[in-house]
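job 3f2a | input accepted
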Amino acid sequence: MSFQDFGSRSSTASRPTPLGGRPSATGAATMGQGALNQISESLLQYQRNVGILEKIVQSLTKTTTNSNKASFRDNNKDELELQYRAQADVITQLGQKVHDLIHLHRQQQSSGTGTTADSVLKTTLIKLERDFDRVQKQATALTQTVDRLRQQQQQKLSAVHQESSSSSGAAAYEQYQQQMQVQLEEDRLAEQIMREREDEIRQINRGMHQVNEIYKDLAHIVASQQDQVDAIETQMEESRANADSGLKQIEKANEKYGSSNCVIS
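job 3f2a | predicted structure (265 res):
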């Protein structure tokens, strides 16, 4: 189940606004759920782009590690650098979008009625904020990794070139390779953490789907009860009209034949 499926289902549970111009509890909950659906979709897109950025960073790291005393600015690295800059710009824009949506929905929730549905929506928003913070930290960590990789690469290559003419040059280069292996291990650990965060987001998606089903059931119950109330009201109006009509006929008979001949029992 994706956030897109959840959004399409939540749109079918909307109810008309009752008399007085104020939305019902079910309608307000549906509106809040629609906003959470938009946040979830943007957060999922943001998380996917962070995953793409992570793969680019891994490619940069591998290319740098496998380069044997080559320049950092070879063709393959130049292409990866361009991809990294483009993806970093996209992630920055998506992150700002998710942040603005969460801030806007937080302001709207401050005027809530305090119902059970409002509490569920607030809890869900807190989970989304927490997951957004985690993914945002992951994106920041990837950016810092690339910055650190560039700095270390320049420093290490400079040291290797300076010491290449001496007997300690080979040992320095070997140490550099070992440090890069440690960096690769850290990147693999970051990838594992990212997978765990993806599982948490999927669990939130399933939970929101269940909440959506509850809202749909409540809307169906309210609609069925409204039909019954309308039927009772219609029958009462018909009974009243029949009683008024019968009374008028009795009054006419009384006037025509006299009170002695017309008795109401």
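job 3f2a | Helices lie at 3-10, 25-66, 75-109, 116-163, 169-257.
job 3f2a | closed
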